[in-house]
Specification:
The protein folds into two domains: about 35-200, no CATH class; about 205-270. It has about 270 residues and is of the alpha+beta class. The chain has helices at about 25-30, 65-70, 95-105, 160-175, 210-220, 225-240, 260-270; strands at about 1-5, 10, 65, 90, 105-115, 120-130, 140-150, 185. It starts with a strand and ends with a helix. Helix 3 (about 95-105) crosses helix 4 (about 160-175) and helix 5 packs parallel to helix 7.
Length: about 270
């Protein structure tokens, strides 16, 4: 640059300096956790009480409208998830895996029991890494269970009951521990009311209140589908034996809480 004054000329040389580029993160850096047990490169969402809002951490690409929820009510199925409530959505298995990875775990263990041609139960045990939300210095373990049967899967899934049961147990274990109230796509009844059983003998014990509820409906009332169970609920409502406004939002057995299942079991046993 040339500056011309009254009595002199001055030359000033200016050089361009490059801005330091941020270091590109790779492998170990991406999964590095801070002193709070959180991934350093993740933008977490928090609740008012300071806990992590894991529901808000779900990427929209893993969510889609629950077709059955709308079909059961004679409503058109939306083409997007915009404005939908959690009960109107389903979450893909990939979304559940993503949440588990974000939360951090040390191990996942499956215990598959009661294996038969038409009935399988699976228990999923996840040992979670500690973070600031946990009060123990040791890993936190959470367990949940699920089943896959001839009456809650379609023809294709009948060939892979063990895998379906394990996926359902894993989904339930993750979302219940992280307080996510969106039903997993793997959890819903895919039988569509079809009877996929032949000469099925269900001698496997039900290990959850919901599982026992299904067994009573099947053995005592001949109900092999969730739609059939909805018909039983309508009869109970008319007879004033069981009334629950939330029941209209149930689209699968996984929507029924253990508390409500325990209320229904003695009613159905005596009916």
């Amino acid at each position: 640059m040339l500056i011309i004054g009254k009595n002199q000329s001055t030359f000033i040389y200016m050089s361009k300096t490059k801005k330091a580029q941020p270091k590109k993160k790779y492998g170990p850096d991406i999964y590095k956790r801070n002193d709070h047990g959180l991934l350093e490169n993740v933008d977490y969402k928090f609740n008012d009480d300071g806990s992590i809002n894991w529901r808000a951490m779900i990427k929209p690409e893993f969510l889609y409208p629950n077709k059955d929820w709308f079909s059961m009510r004679g409503q058109e199925v939306p083409t997007s998830i915009d404005g939908l409530e959690d009960r109107q959505l389903l979450i893909m298995l990939g979304g559940i895996k993503e949440l588990a990875k974000l939360r951090g775990y040390t191990s996942v263990h499956f215990d598959v029991n009661n294996i038969s041609d038409n009935y399988v139960t699976a228990k999923c045990t996840i040992c979670w890494c500690n973070n600031y939300e946990t009060v123990s210095d040791f890993t936190t373990t959470y367990v949940d269970v699920a089943n896959a049967t001839a009456s809650n899967t379609d023809d294709f899934c009948m060939k892979f009951l063990e895998t379906i049961a394990c996926n359902r147990a894993f989904v339930r274990c993750v979302r219940n521990y992280l307080n996510v109230h969106i039903v997993g796509a793997d959890e819903i009844d895919k039988s569509k009311g079809a009877d996929n059983s032949t000469t099925v003998e269900y001698d496997a014990p039900a290990i959850t209140p919901t599982g026992l509820l299904e067994k009573i409906l099947r053995d005592k009332h001949g109900v092999d589908s969730f739609e059939g169970f909805k018909n039983v609920l309508r009869d109970l409502w008319k007879a004033e034996k069981y009334r629950n406004e939330e029941a209209k939002n149930w689209s699968s057995y996984s929507d029924i809480s253990a508390k409500e299942a325990r209320k229904l079991i003695p009613i159905l046993k005596s009916k």
